[in-house]
Amino acid sequence: MQEQIKNINTLEELQALYTSTFGKNGTMTARLKEMKNLDNDARAALNLENATLRELFKTRQSELEQAVLMAGLQKQKLDVSLNPVPENRGTLHPLTHSLTCISKILESFGYTMYTGPSVEDDWHNFTALNTPDHHPARDMQDTFFLANGNVLRTQTSAIQIRAMETDGVPIKMFGVGCTYRKEWDATHGPMFGQIEGLYIDKNITMSDLIGDIRAFLTRFFELDNIELRIRPSYFPFTDPSIEVDMKWKNDRWLEIMGAGMVHPNVLRNCGIDPDVYQGFAFGFGWDRLAMLKYNLPDLRDLYNNDVRWLKSAGF
Ligand code: PHE
Fold it and tell me: Which CATH number fits domain 94-312: 1.10.620.20, 3.40.640.10, 3.20.20.70, 3.30.930.10?
């Protein structure tokens, strides 16, 4: 019997043998019932046999249960050599990337971020920026006018007016926001992100402006050496006004931003004395900078929300 128990290989067989031994009609049950007819030695022997067999059943049962468990685990074993199911992870949009990067750089230069409304009144978008009614410069930007005379902000320059009105000078800020113009081609969309820096204090000069632009572009494009070309330009709210080009791959010159020394009329419009304070402003499209940084051919792709494009472009 003892050998038999040890050689059983399934729980079912073990259970069957247990029942035929210790069950109601089991062999051991029957023998135990007859115990009263046995002498002391025989009783002791039977008791010992009974106890030993029960112990053996228990041991074999736990061995077999363990074996079943192990077999189950064996089947579930992880195969780490299998190719993983591709994970559909979200990532930051390239525009978010470039905005974060730009903000970090400007903040490290001491500029503070400001925002403003997308629907602007005439004063903040044009008049205070030295662009009165019927000024020809209003045609430089194809403006979306609203019925009540407000406009969709055409430039984040409006934010600098709001900042100077509320916080006064000295001020070192950058405005961030979407701007709107009636434009539609590979490098212009009707809505684009603009950033505008403003630094007004005593004794601020054009070389401070060019120094900050150079430092900013070097950091943003992660280049050791950038070549800039400063061209005279015209904006009603700066004088002198410049346009900054940067030498790109294949020796092409790319227009990067407009800038200049803030026009005295703009300062006066914000209650600032231009004989005491002066400074500079610069403005650029942060989506255009993203296009250059990430080598994107069409600006409009940035606004299509097409996940396939984002993935194929490596984001
Ligand atoms: N606001 C100008 C534009 O929309 C850019 C600019 C900003 C130019 C600040 C000079 C100074 O093009």
Answer: 3.30.930.10
